[in-house]
Amino acid sequence: MVVGKVTLEYPVAVSVELLWKVAFSGNVSIFTKACVGMIDAIEVEGDGGPGSVTTMKLNPVSDTKVFKTRLLSRDAAARVVKSEMVVEGELAGKFKSQVSEVKVVPAGEGACAVHMTVVYERVDGTLLPPEEEARIGQGYLGLIKKVEEYLVAHPSEFA
């Protein structure tokens, strides 16, 4: 069994509280609004807590059309969320599993940093080439960047 790991850190120009509230609290309506133009719709199966499955239908210009995850845990006090990709369809031929953990930490007044780790296992037992690992990380960070852009442009909307 070969396990791959992608780690990223991304500085965000909004407070840890605001980023957490919009991107990770589980409030689908504000997250969708902050990702306007990138996410067309979000559906949640379950109560939004651990075990719930979230399906994001991404804008047609995106490489990925549907992104489906199962929430494993959300710790609001520590600002850590852990989820696993639901492997089905085309991805079932490539991945056995893909688990992401995101931690949001303060980084000065009005700023924070997102620390992300994605651990994956492929069906064929090999690691992804570095450029494909980078693409996985950038896919996750694309959502964070979109939220950041929205919050910088609308600083008091969700405060």
Automatic annotation (TrEMBL):
Entry GO MF terms: abscisic acid binding; protein phosphatase inhibitor activity; signaling receptor activity
Major subcellular site: nucleus
Matching InterPro entries: Bet_v_I/MLP (IPR000916), Plant_def-hormone_signal (IPR050279), START-like_dom_sf (IPR023393)
GO biological process assignments: abscisic acid-activated signaling pathway; defense response
GO annotations of cellular component type: cytoplasm; nucleus
Localization: Nucleus
Domain Bet v I/Major latex protein span(s) in chain numbering: 1-154
Protein family per UniProt: Belongs to the BetVI family.
Protein name: Bet v I/Major latex protein domain-containing protein
Organism this protein belongs to: Panicum virgatum
